[in-house]
Amino acid sequence: MQKIPISKCYIHEQVADSKIAAEIVSRFDFSCETVQDAKQVYKKILEAKDPVQKGKETLFLTKNKGAFVRNCPGTRKYLCCGYKILHIGTYCYMDCSYCILQAYFHPPVLQYYVNHDDLLPELSTLLSQKNISRIGTGEFTDSLIWDQLTDLSGILVPKFAEQSHAVLELKTKTASIEKLEFLDHNKKTIVSWSLNTEKIIATEERNTSSLHHRLAAAAKCQSWGYPLAFHFDPMVIYDNSIKDYKEVIDLLFSYILPENIVWISLGTFRFMPGLKPIVQKRFADSKIIYGEFITGLDSKMRYFKPLRINFYEKIISHIIKFAPKMLIYFCMEDQEVWRKTMGFEPSEHGGLPHMLDQAAVLHCGLG
């Protein structure tokens, strides 16, 4: 497991008597302090020279006062996959230059919600419905960093295994899979990895697991019977990047059998303008924000569309060499990109959510 760089833990007084909070604190030699208000924590972080880094070193155990199950917000004008989010916490102690969470949260802080007495009934309500659902914990955080602090996977994976209408996706850049080995998953949990080139991992993804360690972890999960997924997002365009991404694909299929992969997603680097000064300050040597970008329909900076299309075409054709029947999809692209790279639009196949639901039915036994 990766070393957790947390140096300070704050506990909201509302959850000071929480058994879960006590278990987390007992596992590590944290300096802990009880606070009456989250603003006390935020103030400490904002006073730091680098609030983003300070937030990664500060754990705040608190209560989620909103919904645990949420619809993915998606992006205007681009096709969304209809994902649901299980909002277990926020932020991450890994440090990727392109991470939108640096600009999304004010301030960014590593929060974990310990009120599982609210989470579990809400999740049970979702699972009692007969509609197919895809739900993941990796939208506002990394799914598996919490397994070093908590027994969350040991709660969620067996809970999903008991039903047949929803699938849980655990998305990570770590190799922290130890707690998954002996869980009864019944193929209702997909373990997925974000992948990138060795160059991008080395320069833009601080404190993450190496490409080989991620794929070795995926191979172990494959041997334990878990369905898998992989996300090439964000893909960064640079000199020889297509060659480098093809090498990642070669390596992926040297570890993993195509029939054990539920889906592969692709998405090129895009960012809200507010992220640029953060990257310039925190990753002074990074070049990723200086590509050929234009303002997209969602007001994010995106690579010029012909560049994206050309890039996608070459990556897709290489994946298909290994896995001709693989469900490949785009995270937040428009119909034109689908048409010119895939040869169809998702609406012709019932829409992107339907396509992904059917892949989950096939690989995970939903229905």
Give structural notes.
The protein has a single domain, classed as Alpha-Beta Horseshoe (pyruvate-formate lyase- activating enzyme). Helix content is 36%, strand content 20%. It has 13 helices and 18 strands. The strands form 4 sheets. The protein has an 8-stranded mixed sheet with strand order 4-5-9-10-11-13-14-18. It has a 5-stranded mixed sheet with strand order 2-1-3-8-6. It has a 3-stranded antiparallel sheet with strand order 15-17-16. The mean pLDDT is 94.
Strand order of the largest sheet: 4-5-9-10-11-13-14-18
**Structural Rg:** 20 Å
> What is the helix tally?
13
* Mean of all residue-level pLDDT scores: 94
Q: Under the CATH scheme, which class?
A: Alpha Beta
Indicate the proportion of strand residues.
15-25%
User: What is the second-level CATH architecture?
Assistant: Alpha-Beta Horseshoe
Q: How many domains? A: 1
Helix content: 25-40%
Estimate the global geometry from the Cα principal axes: globular
The name CATH uses for the topology is pyruvate-formate lyase- activating enzyme
Write a concise keyword list for the protein shown above:
single chain; 367 residues; alpha/beta; pyruvate-formate lyase- activating enzyme; 8-stranded mixed beta sheet; 5-stranded mixed beta sheet; 13 helices; 36% helix; 20% strand; globular
Topology:
Layout lengths: L7 E5 L6 H9 L3 E5 L2 H9 L4 H6 L1 E5 L6 E3 L12 E3 L2 E2 L4 E2 L4 H4 L5 E4 L2 H13 L4 E4 L15 H10 L4 E7 L16 E6 L3 H7 E2 L4 H13 L4 E8 L5 H15 L5 E8 L1 E2 L3 H8 L10 E3 L5 E3 L1 H18 L5 E3 L4 H8 L9 H13 L3
Parallel strand pairs: 1-2, 1-3, 3-8, 5-9, 9-10, 10-11, 11-13, 13-14, 14-18
Antiparallel strand pairs: 4-5, 6-8, 7-12, 15-17, 16-17
Helix pairs in contact: 8-9, 9-11, 11-12
